[in-house]
Design goal:
mainly alpha, about 0% strand, single chain, 7 helices
Length: about 170
Amino acid sequence: MAYYLKIFNVLFISTVKYFYTPFYAYMIGLDFWGTLVTMIVGGILGFCIYYYLSNIVIVSSRHLKPLLKTIIPSFIQYHYNRFKHKRKLKRLTKKKFTRRNRILVKISRTYGMYTIIILTPILISLVLGAFLLRKYYGDRHEAIPLMILSIAVEGAILVVGYWYLMGDL
């Protein structure tokens, strides 16, 4: 396979699933520096594309909801309304906040964005991480630079780790 096709493959895979990219690059015979640079550029490019596309999805879903109510058959709407009513009754009888629940809510409000930023390149795909970041923390200006930094640092760690495990570093 030509070198530029290997670069394109690694770039494309790193835009979707970041964690498995160094292993794939090693398997197709891409060198260390090519993998490192291509993976980081692909991850950042993929995140930016998904981040701004998720805004389009979020905004358009607000406008499509009234249209869907006219298209969806009435029996499905009836079952959905029954489900919403049962869920509402269940929430009314739900247990009140305890001390433990208050602590968990405080932690998630304080560290929620940082948790998404740290876990997105490794455990969550970049698509889902970009969507969650845009939906819940789109108003915070430090979200995008921190995510780009996280992608770059974790990408370097992954590539060095894979190459070290394979014995080529």
